[in-house]
Design goal:
The chain is of the alpha/beta class. The chain has a domain at 78-237: Trna Endonuclease, Chain: A, domain 1. Helix content is 47%, strand content 13%. The chain has helices at residues 15-24, 30-60, 84-96, 102-112, 162-172, 208-220, 229-246, 250-254, 260-277; strands at residues 124-131, 134-141, 146-152, 183-190, 203-207. Strands 1-2-3-4-5 form a five-stranded mixed sheet. It is globular.
Amino acid sequence: MDWSFVEVFKAPVSTSVAKTRQVSEMPDWDSADEISDALKNAAAQIQGRLENTLARWDTKLGKLGGDPQRHDWQHFRPLRLRREEDWSDWLAHLLESSKSGQLGYKLFREIVGSKRQGDFSRPQVEREVVVGKRRADIVLVTGDRVGIDVEVKIGDRQFEKTSETSASVVNDFVPERGPLVTVWRHVLLVLDDPKEGEVPDEHVKIKWARVASCIRSVLAGADSDAEEISWRVWAWSFIGCIEQKILGFNATMREPAQSPSLALRLLHHLEQGEENDR
């Protein structure tokens, strides 16, 4: 016989005992309150550090209107920024029109092993270069004839044609002026780190955050006046658009208390820019 039905029968519990048991089983919220308070304090400290860091950048970029993060770039309309081609055009323009060569030097010097900033002063830069059956996003040729082909990504992770395009650049690219390229370097400009094995080994990955940090360091540097004011204004605007439209930092400035993790990311990003400035 199955006696399991007996389990449904329970002895009655007196009212006093029931009340005592109910009180003892009430949850203790002290620990949760302590955790909540600690998180609020941590968020306040992050926000304080962020404001101090932004204030320093306000001083460094005072001639251009302070830190770009003080402005809302979500409704920036002078240029289209919906496609990778639009971002490639802007980056190519800043690289090509740089009188000092600081931006290209800061971005690519480790990749090409260059020790001369002048090699990136108004270099030859071409966009949408037809090579074989492919198109290269950006091809830059330095003063010492080192070629850098840059594949630009702002979101998609389609790298199937990356190797073929780079190989076509090496085999088929002919510069518009000057001697042929002697050495090639291949760069993949991405938002996040690709997965292991997703990108060909010959490609060096550069993140958009580094582009913004390098531009910050150029504009905050002691010799920033070496660039024309028009270049500096466009570069300053590019920082704001990269950081808000690509890196997603805009929400932090409008509702800082709602996203402390984003505030921390922005803080680290700004501090990295200061490191590059030293």
